[in-house]
Amino acid sequence: QVRLVESGGGLVQAGGSLRLSCAASGSIFSIGSINGMGWYRQAPGSQRELVATITRDGSTNYADSVKGRFTISRDGGKNTVYLQMNSLKPEDTAVYFCNAVTLGARLTWGQGTQVTVSS
After folding, report:
1. Gyration radius (Cα) of the chain, Å
2. What is the average pLDDT across 21-44?
3. Tens digit of pLDDT for each residue in 44-63?
4. How far is 9 from 32, CA to CA, in rounded Å?
5. Which of 1, 52, 69, 105 has the least CB density, counted as fewest CB within 10 Å?
6. How far is it, in rounded angstroms, from Cα 63 to Cα 85?
7. CB under 8 Å to 27, separation ≥6 — which residues?
8. How big is the CA angle at 107 (ends 42 and 60), to the nearest 5 degrees?
9. In this structure, what DSSP letter does residue 112 have?
């Protein structure tokens, strides 16, 4: 099955930026059951939450907490999904994951990439 590998996380000061990448071993949207991909994050002691999505036709949506600061995109070959994160805040600190937004279509979770925003 398609493997997902997240990268691009790191330590950044508040107000800084990071660009996360989700690389797939195959074309994500060639899988019929996947209509949308999303970026999720999980902070210590919290449930994993969905922060941004992109659908097969390129439509995007964002959680209120990141709206106006984060941008989700994908490459032309559909092998990589990106999350551009600007104006980062300490509350953005979490492990970030990518996966399909529909539960039944989800692939195996990757290890995620740690984002730490210092104040």
Report:
1. 13
2. 90
3. 999 999 999 999 889 999 99
4. 29
5. 1
6. 13
7. 77, 78, 79
8. 65
9. -
